[in-house]
Structures are given as structure tokens and as C-alpha cells.
């Protein structure tokens, strides 16, 4: 399949790539109606790219059945209003089964989570992604890269085998490394998505990214859209004004090795009455004393 066939998917990656939270009901199950309502809020807010089963969606805390449910709910709610990029991962057969399930439901892309394994070789990284990409040649495939050892040449090698590898969610916190990696892999060959969200978006855009992922977008879609509009027009001072607006919120998420990454987003949503604050272990809800600051930030965004 030629790259022309993936034009819609490539355009969807060059945008705010929203990572929806997965809200839980009082009994601990996925709160389906609440999840649908949160998706509608994103869609109504102007978001057109959704990634169910991302890390902000607590991918690794969901059961296989719950991951399928979240994909189904997202596809049903998005309809033709958004392009859906379904997160897949774990062992190779599980990742392939998830990708095929996404394809059956009509999803156009899958994001392959970084392989969670204590021993990741660069050859093995290529093999892992190649197995998934070859199983769903009709879908756009987006590796989620968090491994600073991986070289751009390896990504190019993967795409030589699998032309449906069309974009990259790059989440190594090093703008210089990103710039080099993108150029070694092929700057124009892939759509580069800044995978560390709004705090890194300005620096990564300056080096060639054209989209960024966002968890904050769950709380304030307009804030994320303001940033990408500024970045698209090359107005870095305007983008940095948004950066200043979200700085404290993102610092709270990043503290202690991002221990509260999802927790802070759900706390903000809870303060707005949009979902429960509960997260699953190994995450943990915010202590009572820290909730007021998050609520104040969320309220200050005049959502």
C-alpha cells in the first residue's frame, strides 16, 4: 500500500493526539457512560484524533477484556468525527490480536506501546514492531519510542519492511536526541509526534515534530488547541504563553518519575465533576492536601 493511501492517518497524527483517561465506576469497573461523555467532550471541543488504551488511559492496569471494551466504546462514539489510533502492546500475539480487533472495528491506526521487557535489543525491537505491522498492513502503525538507545536507522529499517509504519510517537526527553533521531530515520518519511505532550511540544516542533500527544486535553481541549495553532503558525512566543499556563499542572504530573501522571488529570476532571478520581495500582489518588491546587489550576483555565 503506497504512502498516499495513508494521507488521512498522517494528517491525523500532525495534530493534538488526545489520550483519553479511562474512568472507573464505584465498583472499580470501567465507567462506560462516563467514558462516552468524556469522549464527546473532546470531540465537541474540536479534537479529531483519539488514542484509546494509551498510558493516560492506564493501559497496563486494564484487563484484555477492558482494553477491547475501551476500543469498542471509542470507535462507537467517534464515528466519523475522529481518526482513532488504538494502543496495543504486551507480548507479540496479544499485540497482534489487539491490532486485528482494532481493524475489525474500523480503526485506521494502531500505536504500538514500547515493549515492556528488561532485555530489549535493537534487532528485537525491529522484529517486535514488524510482527505487529505485518499483521495489519491496511492500518497505519505508530511506534511509541521511549528507549534512548534506539537509533533512527532502526526505525528506517522497520519502515523498509513495513511501509505502513507512517508515524512515530517520540517520548525520549531530549530535544537534541529527537532532532538527530528524526533526521537519521528520515524527517519527511514519518509524521513526528512529540510524545511527551505540551511541555516538550515547542522544542520538538522546532526540530521537526508536527503533532503532540496530550493528557491535559481531557481537562481543557481549548488549551491544547491553542498551543498547536501557535506552533503551526511558527509563533513560538504564543506557544510559550500556553506553556506557562500549563507549566505547574504538568510539573505536578511529572513529579517523582511521573508517579501522578494520570492521577493529576483525573483529579482535575473530578474537580470539574466529570469523572471519579480513582486510578488503579500502581498509580494512586492524590492526597487530600494536594487536591485543591489541581482544582484551582483547572478552574483557572475557564473551561
Helix segment tally:
12
Shape: globular
Task: Give average pLDDT, whole number.
Answer: 96
What's the N-to-C terminus distance?
A: 42 Å
State the strand order across the main sheet: 1-8-7-6-5-4-3-2
What is the share of helical residues?
A: 40-55%
Question: Strand percentage, roughly?
Answer: 5-15%
Contiguous runs where pLDDT drops below 50 for at least 5 residues: none
The gyration radius over C-alpha positions equals: 18 Å
H-E string: HEHEHEHEHEHEHEHEHHHH
Structural class: alpha/beta
Number of strands: 8
Quaternary:
single chain
Largest beta-sheet details? 8 strands, parallel
What order do the helices and strands come in, and which of them pair?
Elements: H1 7-13, E1 16-18, H2 32-44, E2 49-50, H3 64-78, E3 83-88, H4 92-105, E4 109-112, H5 122-135, E5 140-145, H6 152-161, E6 167-170, H7 175-185, E7 191-194, H8 201-206, E8 211-214, H9 221-232, H10 236-258, H11 261-271, H12 288-300
Parallel strand pairs: 1-8, 2-3, 3-4, 4-5, 5-6, 6-7, 7-8
Tags for this entry?
12 helices, 303 residues, alpha/beta
Structural notes for this entry:
The protein has 12 helices and 8 strands. It has helices at residues 7-13, 32-44, 64-78, 92-105, 122-135, 152-161, 175-185, 201-206, 221-232, 236-258, 261-271, 288-300; strands at 16-18, 49-50, 83-88, 109-112, 140-145, 167-170, 191-194, 211-214. Helix 6 links the parallel strand 5 and strand 6. The protein is globular and about 50 Å long.
Amino acid at each position: 500500500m503506497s504512502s498516499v493511501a495513508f494521507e488521512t492517518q498522517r494528517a491525523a497524527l500532525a495534530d493534538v493526539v488526545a489520550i483519553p483517561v479511562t474512568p472507573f465506576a464505584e465498583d472499580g469497573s470501567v465507567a462506560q457512560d462516563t467514558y462516552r461523555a468524556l469522549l464527546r467532550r473532546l470531540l465537541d471541543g474540536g479534537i479529531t484524533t483519539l488514542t484509546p488504551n494509551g498510558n493516560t488511559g492506564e493501559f497496563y492496569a486494564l484487563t484484555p477484556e477492558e482494553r477491547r471494551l475501551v476500543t469498542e466504546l471509542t470507535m462507537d462514539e467517534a464515528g466519523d468525527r475522529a481518526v482513532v489510533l488504538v494502543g496495543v502492546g504486551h507480548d507479540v500475539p496479544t499485540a497482534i490480536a489487539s491490532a486485528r480487533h482494532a481493524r475489525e472495528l474500523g480503526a485506521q491506526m494502531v500505536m504500538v506501546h514500547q515493549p515492556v521487557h528488561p532485555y530489549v535489543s535493537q534487532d528485537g525491537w525491529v522484529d517486535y514492531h514488524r510482527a505487529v505491522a505485518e499483521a495489519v498492513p491496511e492500518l497505519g502503525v505508530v511506534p511509541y519510542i521511549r528507549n534512548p538507545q534506539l537509533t533512527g536507522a532502526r526505525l528506517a529499517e522497520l519502515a523498509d519492511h513495513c511501509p505502513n509504519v507512517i508515524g512515530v510517537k517520540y517520548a525520549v526527553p531530549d530535544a537534541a536526541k529527537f532532532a538527530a533521531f528524526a533526521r537519521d530515520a528520515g524527517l519527511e518519511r514519518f509524521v513526528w509526534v512529540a510524545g511527551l505532550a505540551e511541555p516538550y511540544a515547542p522544542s520538538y516542533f522546532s526540530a521537526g515534530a508536527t503533532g503532540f500527544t496530550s493528557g491535559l486535553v481531557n481537562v481543557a481541549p481549548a488549551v491544547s488547541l491553542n498551543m498547536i495553532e501557535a506552533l503551526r503558525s511558527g509563533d513560538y512566543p504564543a506557544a510559550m504563553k500556553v506553556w506557562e499556563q500549563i507549566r505547574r499542572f504538568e510539573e505536578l504530573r511529572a513529579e517523582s518519575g511521573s508517579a501522578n501522571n494520570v492521577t493529576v488529570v483525573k483529579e482535575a476532571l473530578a474537580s470539574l465533576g466529570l469523572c471519579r478520581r480513582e486510578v488503579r495500582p500502581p498509580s494512586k489518588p492524590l492526597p487530600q492536601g494536594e487536591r485543591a491546587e489541581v482544582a484551582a489550576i483547572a478552574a483557572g483555565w475557564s473551561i
